[in-house]
Amino acid sequence: MKFSIIIPTLNEANSIQTCLLALQPIKKDCEIIIADGGSSDNTVIFTKHLADKTIICSKGRGRQMNSGTNHATGDVLIFLHADTYLPENALTLIEQHINQHAQWGHFDISLNGNSLMLKIIAFFMNWRSRLTGVATGDQVIFVTQQLFNQVGQYPEISLMEDIALCKILNKISLPICLNAKVNSSGRRWEYNGIYKTILLMWFIRLSYFLGTDPQKLAILYSENIFTQFKLKKFWK
Fold first, then answer.
1. 175 near 169, Cβ under 8 Å?
2. What is the CA radius of gyration of the chain?
3. Distance between CA atoms of 138 and 104, rounded to whole angstroms?
4. pLDDT tens-digit profile of 102-130?
5. Which end of the chain is more exposed for a tag (fewer CB within 10 A), N or C?
C-alpha cells in the first residue's frame, strides 16, 4: 500500500521545516506533497529537499488539498496540517485498519500547549468525532484515493471543508477512529484566548449547520469577530 501525505501551507515558514523533518523517517514509505497557497515568506524555500513535490496553487485549504491530490500517486491520501505531527506507527495503523469496507478515517488528537484546558478540549474533540463521525483537519483525515475521487474530492469552500467532506463520506461508511494521537499545536487557542476561541468555534459550527455562507464564516474565523457588537456589524 502506497501513501501520499498532502500538506496545505500558507506562510508556514516558522513550522514547515520541523513538520517535514518529523516525516523523514517514514519518507521511504510515502510521498510528501506540499500544496502551497501562495506564501509570501520562505515556506516554499524551506520545503526543498524535504518534500517530494511542492505545488503552487490557489489559496484555500480545500483547493490546495485537491491540487496536491491531483499530483499524488498513493493508494491512501493523508491530509496533514503543518503544525500537526503523526504518531510513529501512523502508516502501519492505517494499513492495518483500512479495507474495502472502511476506506477513510482519522486519528485522535492531543493539543500541545501550556494550558490544562487544551487537554480538556482535545478530549471533547475526540469524543465528538467518535459520536458524530465528523472530524476536523487537525485530526488528520485519511482516505483511499479511489473513494476521495469518487465523492468529488474536497468541497472548494472557504471554510469547513473538512466537515463537509466527512458528511459526504459518512453517507458511504463510518470512519475508522484510531486511538493513536496526533500532536497538534494549540497556538491559535492560546494566542486568541481559549474560552473566546471555544465560543468562536461553537458559533461557526452552528452557523454552518444553519446554512451560513462559508465565505462569511471564513472572515469571522480569520478576524476572530466574536463580541456581540462585532457580530451585529458582521451580519449587516
1. yes
2. 17
3. 15
4. 999 999 999 998 888 999 999 999 999 99
5. C
